[in-house]
Design brief:
Elements: H1 2-9, H2 17-29, H3 34-47, H4 52-62, H5 66-74, H6 97-109, H7 126-130, H8 139-147, H9 151-164, H10 169-179
Helix pairs in contact: 2-3, 3-4, 8-9, 9-10
């Protein structure tokens, strides 16, 4: 499959009906491959297939440069049989000297991502989150405390809520009575 794809990519095989069928399989396996989509659209166009209109829109949506894609479809590339980036592609697994130099430099430097230690408090942090704060009151907190079996604290919260919202004092009184 890889060999056939590189032959199409480099222009050694025509973009015809047979290539369109092959490229459709490539797209099923690699749906976000820009080259495959663009080559598939061109093959559909060359073969006069009805799927061209739909596929050209998909290919244009993911094309890195729509002007280049349009020129590719119209055949306005001098000296190129297929998509222009194909000439810059290396054989699979082969690296240019500059790529190899970058890799070597990276391996020699052994870079590490370090976490920022500033701004992170030290010591026991969980204690503060479980401390009782009598000024924090809500009906939801009272319900949670009831479920946890901390009925005295829940009753205190309902009493404070009753004072804060006198219009709901009978509602909170019923809640307190149901807890007791």
């Amino acid at each position: 499959m890889q060999k056939n794809y590189y032959e199409i990519l480099k222009g050694k095989r025509p973009l015809d009906r047979k290539a369109a069928r092959f490229l459709k399989g490539v797209i099923k396996k690699y749906p976000y491959s820009q080259h495959a989509r663009m080559l598939y659209a061109k093959a559909l166009m060359n073969a006069g297939m009805s799927a061209f209109k739909e596929e050209v829109n998909k290919a244009a949506a993911i094309a890195p440069d729509r002007k280049v894609f349009r020129a590719f479809l119209s055949g306005k590339f001098s000296g190129f049989n297929t998509f222009p980036l194909a000439e810059k592609q290396n054989e699979p697994g082969k690296k240019t000297a500059s790529q190899q130099a970058i890799i070597e430099r990276f391996l020699k430097q052994e870079p590490r991502i370090r976490s920022k230690s500033s701004g992170v408090p030290e010591g026991e942090l969980s204690r503060e989150s479980i401390e009782y704060h009598p000024d924090i009151v809500s009906e939801t907190l009272a319900q949670i405390l009831v479920k946890q079996g901390q009925t005295d604290r829940a009753i205190d919260i309902y009493k404070k809520l009753s004072l804060m919202f006198p219009e709901k004092s009978s509602y909170f009184a019923k809640k307190i009575e149901s807890i007791r």
